[in-house]
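User: I want to check something. If I give you two sequences, will you return the structure for each one separately, not as a complex?

Assistant: Yes, each is folded on its own. Here is the first sequence with its structure:
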Amino acid sequence: MTEQKRLKVLDANILYLIGAILFWTIGVYFQSKDLQSGLIITQYIIILLPPIIYIMAKRLNVRKILKLNKISFKHIFLIICITILVYPAAIFGNALLITIISFLGNLNIPQLPMATNRSEYLVLIFIISISAGICEEIFFRGFILSCYERMGKKKAVVFSAILFGFFHFNIYNLLGPIILGLVFGYLVLETGSIFAGMVGHIVNNGFAVTLGYILNLAADFIPGTDAAGEMAADISVSFAMLASTILFGIISIITLSIAYQLMKIIKRDKGEPDLAIYGEDDEADVKKYEFIPLIFTGILFIIVIAIQIREIISLG
């Protein structure tokens, strides 16, 4: 790839800002009209389309930038196992932050849509699992990760994961996506394939949708659900969150250690590849002005989080 056709960190940050603006205008508008169709528009029009257009407009190699490379069935299986094992850690991350902010007042945690029948379940699998897994991975582990690779592979994984978490614009769901982003970014670079991130993302979201569906079905058959709910209402939210956070923290230590061993298998299979598109010498090419778009995105994020915290305090 020639110097004129290299993606820069500035490219990622500009598109990230554009995506945030589109999300809080077009995305929020259509989701308020109809959540399911709004989510589809958000995924395919706001998240997937811009990086594709950007890459094609600059006449870059789409396959190389997005790492559209094959992945073995063995690694697919390992990635599925790794994702399930990392799931408790993502829950722990969110639970930890929620526990802290629960001391400010009463929480108003937004819930993902939960299926009540088979047709709703299949629709949610398509929207929340498959669509999000494809579109968000193309944007974050495809475009943004490639742009940040000129800073080095480790920084690329960290920055892309943080941007992924912040893009949710939700204080209740911040640390979880960052943890998952770190794992998906590592797997994409280690395998050299965006499909590693897609598989992990689809499995993670699909697991959440399936769990919600199962809980809905179980609620119809478990007696005394209302009484249990009344009993739970008498328990301090902060205490309950603290207990669940500790529990998931303990589980995470065990599952992450297993996941790490599985990651080592993938690394061993791939040998010691040069995972960065750009060499270490290119780090000097990243200028401070390339991060200016993130300032505006950060301001938007702070405003949204401030509104959420204000709501928590007002409900307290």
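And separately, the second sequence with its own structure:
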Amino acid sequence: MSRRNRVLESSMALYIIVAMTFLAHVGFAGSRVLVALFAVDQGATPFIVGTVISLYAAVPIVLALPAGRMTDRLGYQIPILFGTCGICIALLMVWVWPTMTTLYFTATLLGISFMAFQIATQTLVGAMSAPERRANNFNLISLGFALANFIGPLLAGILIDQIGHGRTFFALAMPLVPAIIIAALGSRWIPDVHTKSQQPSSGSRDLLKIKPLRNAMIASAIVSSAWDLYQFFMPIYGRAHGLSATEIGFILSAFATSIIMVRLVLPLGLKRASAAELLTYAMFVACAGYCLFPLFHTVWTLAIASFILGIGCGCGQPLSLTLVYNASPPGRTGESAGLRITANQTMHFIVPLLFGALGSVAGMAAVFFTNAGLLAIGGGFSQRNHATGKTQPPS
């Protein structure tokens, strides 16, 4: 196959992945709002809601690394198909059995399915991208996530007010149908870029000895926790101040809008600074956004605070993906992606439980200021690494 044909094949595959990512993530992003509001509607306390949301991450903490290794060995189509089917089934479960018990199973299956989908699609994009295009291609797929993060929560909020929680679960499952069809046809569009490791994996410890890889994962986990805390607490915080589901969906969409905007201009930023430097600045911006939340409780003021927070969080995924992929040993990119997701999912598991308990005892303001402090510490740590030359820019 000529170089031109390979480029065309990769370009087509990239846009197919973006479309499939958007369809799958509309349901997943909407589910986080829907699950939280359904639990609140059932009378759950912030701590109980936290236990449900934590199940999104509980099993992926254990399975992300093995799933990454399996992707390195078997390729991309099977985990992509499993992920899209699993998200669809998980959403339909609550439509059929709308109970709190079902919600626990749904959150668990959603977490497992999206983990498999995320590792496979992100590793595939990295593998089929030339080094000079990798950051921009990761940013493009992240735009698919961002658009879904805009539409999913807003759609969930509107549908809850119009047709109720149960039917909203069914509605959010429908975009998964074309995503499943695309995944099933993967052998026709996935390019032949799968590279197996020449040596068996010696475990994750040797990966963590690579300083740029370790630093990228730490920063990724901190930004991921900030994103997760927002999606978990914003519906609870809005309900506590008497906001409707539609108004909460609007606020969450302001967060997603800023993510879309920052990812549109991110390629310009990468021409002026390294991915590692931009990731550091993003943590400080997210810190500022969190400091604003306890000061406001109206729709428009919370939307402004959400927009600022989204600027910081929106840079996290594509930049950390680029840093992790570039620092990964050949043939172990899926394993590195799995290790990154393990770190992120650990935060996803701990944050709802820890901050749910903190919110129940000390109030919402303590939650927001505590997470702002975590972001400030992470940004300061990353900045010192730049000053001492410990973090290298991506190749």
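Because they were folded independently, the notes below concern the second chain alone. Confidence is low (pLDDT under 50) at residues 388-395. The chain has 16 helices and no strands.
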